[in-house]
Amino acid sequence: DFMSKEISENGQVVRTALAIPEADIDQMVQAIDGSERTVLTGVGTSYYVALMGQYMMSGLANEFLPAMSSDEMPHMVSLRKGDHVLSISQSGETYDTLRALRISRQRGATLSSILNVTASSMAREVDHFIDQGAGPEICVLSTKSTVSQLVILLRIAIRLAQLKGQQSDEQISTLEQDLAALPDRLDAIFTGDHGQIRDLARHHSVMRNWFFLGRGIHHGLALEAALKFKEVTYCHAEGMSAGALKHGTISLIDDAMHTVIFLPGTDSPQLRQHSLGAMAEISARNGKLVAFQPQDCPQPEPRPETLIECPSAGRWTLPILQLMQAQLFAYYTARALGRDVDKPRSLAKSVTV
Ligand code: M6R
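That is the input. Now the predicted structure with 5-amino-5-deoxy-1-O-phosphono-D-mannitol docked in place:
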């Protein structure tokens, strides 16, 4: 099937994204830096990519670039001349995103895009775009194109941080080394022993209700992991920030509820501590926990029922590794349930209405 083939290409599409000429990245950085305000937009998975991008821009470059779902963007923000909209879309044909761009244009904003299909309406309508070059994505679900978009946004955030003097030369070089190591780490997840994820999926495929939690950039990851899971398994999955759980949703936690939580590494001590706090709240109510974390971390306390580890990585590429694991988890659960992984019911590759 194409879904697993395309997940297996994550490492390769990152190599391609890392080979995009610096001049193309710089053009986007200048569009951001030269604007009064930049808004990141997309819808569905592409919105969650934008949201993770917002954390990257803020955490690395100290820049506030709000991410908005393109279907609601025209109702939420009144743009004007001097503003810039950076849209994310693998197809370049998504109606909601095209509509948000056209309304933004009417109001005087400049437009740019990160696209995987360059012979598309969006490519023709924006002022400039970055071509992901991730190759055709046949499966209706976005997998490799998502990973490629995240890497491009991370490159933009790193360059913006450099331009703004927000990271030292040494920090920039560490970030670049971490990015350079990402393709091999993604390959290692696929070629290595991901049998643990397959077994987890097989043993839990009867579960119909899931929560997916994370904090910081892992919040965007949790939303995307839940979307991927429900699209292909037809099981209910709710993604949210781990901090939001106690503000109502916690009443649903009992011994029949399973929660996936994406933990950051020990290089993000506060974020990790807050995530462990959410695990303690779930555990105290006998909720079942599946935790994802890098392999160089100590055992989380409280202990989850299942712990899935990934190669160690820097704090900004770790969520990309965990995203690949979440894609595999959705894939194996769907297979265990006998779903059509490449063409889930009711979904289309491009949503043009
Ligand atoms: O082509 P786009 O990236 O603009 O598509 C946006 C969404 O329709 C898309 O991401 C959708 O959520 C996918 N089914 C995700 O797998």
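The chain has a mean pLDDT of 96.
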